[in-house]
Amino acid sequence: MNDLIKMTATEAVALLRKKEVSPSDLVEASIARIEAVDETVNALPTRCFERARKQARALEKVRTHEDPRSLCGLPIAVKDYNDVGGVTTTYGSPLFANNVAAESDATVARLESNGAIPIAKANVPEWAGGHTFNPVFGTTRNPWNPDLSAGGSSGGSGAALAAGLVWLATGNDLGGSLRTPASFNGVVGLRPGPGVVPRPRRLPSFDVLWVEGPMGRCVSDVAMMLDAGCGADLSDPLSFDASGDLFQDGLADVKILRRVAFSPDLGLVPMTPEVAGTCEKATRHFGDLGAEVTDDVPDFSTAMDGFQTLRATLVATMMGPLLEAHRQDIAPEIVGNIERGLKLSVADVFVAERARVELYQRMHKFFETHDFLICPTASITPFPIEQRYVEEINGQACETYIDWFAITCAITMTSCPTLSLPCGMSASGMPIGMQIVGKPRGEKNLLRAAFQLEQRLGMAQRLPVGPG
Prior knowledge:
Structural class: alpha+beta
Shape: globular
Helix content: 25-40%
Radius of gyration: 20 Å
Number of strands: 17
CATH class of the largest domain: Alpha Beta
């Protein structure tokens, strides 16, 4: 069982495809690892083991696995903001502690139709946030150091991957909810462009800030999961058909790059020198791929004000009615988010939308001369679990509870695909991640470049880790 856990998802699916292992073998290996390790990590508090066993037995009756998008019976973790049919979806809120989903949402249903087996729900912050704790299931701990945060809001997914509880996990990302835990846990997380992965119905249909995306222990695993999860769904009007070349094909094909640009902070947020230095050093490896490294970074000065407005609009749209009925049962940070959205004027939204359009146009101009934009994923390394959020960086106070991850929020405003890749370790032994930002609809080239860089950095070989 331990040998199975140590495999990448790509390796495990290759064995499933050849029927050298069965879905039941992997389900039982995952269950054994969860029961042995998750008492410490608390990444997967909601388990659906019997449901997974039933799915595994059904998939074992399939004679062949010829579809290249199929995961062939691989167990995955599903973030607790997504519905799995017959399993509770709590959103980390006591208001929904007994909320059983009637059916899997569009994101999960697509993965299940392509051979994924949800085995557990991954812990989340209450509704949103950069640190995974809630009044229903408590705090998720970082497997590299259980005294430190796993990040959020996909903290349960990131920790489950790093600890070897599962091979793949779903994530979603508004302001960094997938990328921050990828960095904190030393795994890979991809925020695709809007529409690549279909989204749940509970989200406003035409919003492009929140996207669903894959998380894995290495780039090839993430590419494989994206193949299994992408595509059109009529419930999501922004989703589109993804038939054609596979994301996982051609990852090892070397493409000569022209230029990449690196910024330690996008001119937005204080950055710890250790994080900035580690990411800059990793960026130099792009020189091995023929790229010139520049500092010609687009202007992001209006990105955070615009993001704060548009995020507040989204949160108020989704949760305004809930606030009216249950204010006392909602986390204070989320109450503040909703109230900010309800107080916005039409003029405020106009300004934010103009800022978003202008930033996209600057990014379009940037990509005329550059292949990728590189910056750190998080301003700091993981912080103590007792903190609700980061209050200061390098002595500079954070005005709101999301300011410390402004560097991911700003990239959200571009709508560009973005991948968080582990790029080094801190002096205290914690992972550090870098964001690689690609051209719109450029997920395939982004994955290929990240794969090439991953081979040079060698971080993927460090996983999984046992909680130490």
